[in-house]
Amino acid sequence: MEFHVDLTSYAELAVLLVNSEDALDSLEGAKRFLVEAGRARHAGRLTRADLQALRELRSELAAVFAAAARHEEQSAVDRLNALLIRHPVHPQISRHDGQRWHLHLTEGGQLSGEYAAGAIMGLTALVTELGVDRLGICQAAPCGRAYLDTSSNRSRRYCSERCASRANVAAYRARRRDLSGHRA
């Protein structure tokens, strides 16, 4: 019997952290970030050490996405492997908030370690199952936010519908300018 755990929701933690921008400027901002990331029950445990660890993890995960966006597959995988070594994953059975028993990925007692374990393991599972090219950086200027391409045809280029629309409108306007310039 084969048992498969969908770790896409854990991979989304990596995206949320990379895209957190200035949310980690303060403990209060980081607590709001954790609530928005669906980790409200952990926000009360956040320490200054966790805040610093999350900032460092954000930078390391951003480097993974950047390498993937540059089509540097080996570099992205090397960075993920280094993170896996630095943040060993410990699976744990958990039940909370009225849910059934389910699997959590942890790394010791610190909140930042738990977040790191989930985000890194989620990205690792996604990369090994779907490929490094599923990690992307939004191509709409000047966005640059990270995203996961879970589309069936590997066609995603933008982090959101908003950025896709903005890029399409900009391309349309550029074509119109080019056409009007050629007619003159």
Fold and architecture overview:
The chain is mainly alpha-helical and about 180 residues long. Helices cover about 55% and strands about 10% of the residues. Strands 1-2 form a two-stranded antiparallel ribbon. A two-stranded antiparallel ribbon has the order 3-4. Helix 4 runs antiparallel to helix 5 (about 75-85) and helix 5 runs antiparallel to helix 6 (about 110-130). Pfam families: ABATE, zf-CGNR. This is CGNR zinc finger domain-containing protein. It comes from Sphaerisporangium flaviroseum.
Mean pLDDT: 87
Low-confidence stretches: none
CATH architecture: Orthogonal Bundle
Helical residues, percent: 55-70%
**Beta strands, count:** 4
Instruction: Bin the strand percentage.
Output: 5-15%
* CATH class category label: Mainly Alpha
Structural class: mainly alpha
Task: Output the strand order for the largest sheet.
Answer: 1-2
How many structurally independent domains? 1
CATH homologous superfamily title: Jann2411-like domain
N-to-C CA distance: 70 Å
Element-level helix/strand string: HHHHHEEHEEH
Which geometry do the CA atoms define?
A: globular
Task: Determine Rg (CA atoms, Å).
Answer: 19 Å
Count of helical stretches: 7
Q: Within the CATH hierarchy, at the fold level, what is the topology?
A: Jann2411-like fold
Largest sheet: 2 strands, antiparallel
Task: Give keywords.
4 strands; single chain; two-stranded antiparallel sheet; Jann2411-like fold; 184 residues; 9% strand; globular; 7 helices; mainly alpha
Per-chain topology:
Layout: H1 8-18, H2 27-36, H3 40-43, H4 48-69, H5 73-86, E1 90-94, E2 102-106, H6 111-130, E3 135-137, E4 146-148, H7 161-183
Antiparallel strand pairs: 1-2, 3-4
Helix pairs in contact: 1-4, 1-6, 4-5, 4-6, 5-6
